[in-house]
Amino acid sequence: MATVTKLDYYEVLTVSRTASDAELKTAYRRLAMQYHPDRNQGDPSAEEKFKECSEAYQVLSDPDKRAAYDRYGHAGVGAAGPGGGSPFTNAQDIGDIFGDIFGEMFGQQGGRGGRGSRQQRGRDLRYDQTIDFTEAIFGKEIEVSVKRMEPCEECVGTGTKSSKGPTTCRQCGGRGQVRFQQGFFSVARTCTHCGGTGQVISDPCPNCHGDGRAEKLHTVRVSIPAGVEEGTRIRYQGGGDAGRFGGPAGDLYIVLTVKPHSFFERDGNDVHCIVPISFTQAALGDEITIPTLEGDTRMKVPEGTQSGKEFRMRGKGVPYLNEHGRGDLIVEVAVQTPKKLTREQRELLRQFGEGVAIENAPTSRSLFTKLKEILS
Fold first, then answer.
1. Based on the structure, what is the number of domains in the chain?
2. pLDDT digits (tens, 9 = 90+) for 262-317
3. CATH of the domain at 240
4. For the stretch 238-262, what's the b/e string if a residue is b when 16 or more beta carbons lie within 10 angstroms of its beta carbon?
5. Are 257 and 130 in contact (CB under 8 A)?
6. CA-to-CA distance for 97 and 137, rounded, in angstroms?
7. Global model pTM greater than 0.70
8. Domain of 141, in residue numbers
9. SS3 353
10. What does the alpha-carbon distance between residue 199 and residue 116 come to, in Å, rounded to a whole number?
């Protein structure tokens, strides 16, 4: 998202952080009706959006959970989410929100009958972009080319070849839905003849075949902020497919994949690396050159340093996403044992070993064994 970064709950519901309870309910009702699985059968992205907005509403509609989220972010509401409880705080929410959802699904809106709307919202689009490790750390601006549906230039989005325009669908009478009896219930389904628009085109545009849109290659300039990680999603509202017949455009989601680094390993906002040092440097101490995200720097190794010792360099890690400050660079030293010694060197080491007492106590393996093996 890979570790997918959760979207901000206020962004999910498209409301401000000071939104009132009424504004939250209105926003959730609109999104729930738009993305409800029964209205988007076979569309996993719509189902995912429905879960996201339900999770967001569950947290923000509860005063205590909202206060915890505002203060600590997602960490403050770790139990929230799909399956973590009902997304409604009281019975009236169920009646109001699901009443509107099912009312509109079955041809009613707020308990009142209504005709089908010809306008249709465009699809959301996803674009997968791979970036380098350092680009994720410091951010970058890139350009991506996305194929999306845009209003047809030949018919100016009307879908018709002439100025005649669409006619009322005879099958549904312009309602966009066909009602039939199922046992004791009267059920409405989307009209298959007009696709729910309530209108049909008798002289379709030869360029778009009556759709009102045509596929075009569109260039988007993407600003990748500093501190993003694997699975981060960047949303461009209105960057998806154009809506049909004047409907709103969908959104574009840029999903990031970060290439691993050959030396550094990221852990949240901290960065780890392993630097080899000689036995002499570990025993006597030294000042060594180590790499950082900005280039080489010097670090003191005190005498008597043991292999696996970690040194923390404050503020040399990953910038906090959309915040001030940075994590740390954690440098682990690995003492390298010489493999080839002269006879004189062997004798000196033997004499040294006779005067030094070392306790052969077991120790745990490093978390970064893989990097140690590379350096060995």
1. 4
2. 999 999 999 999 999 998 899 899 999 999 999 999 999 999 999 999 999 999 99
3. 2.60.260.20
4. ebbbbbbbebebbbbbbbbebeebe
5. yes
6. 42
7. no
8. 120-160+208-260
9. helix
10. 9
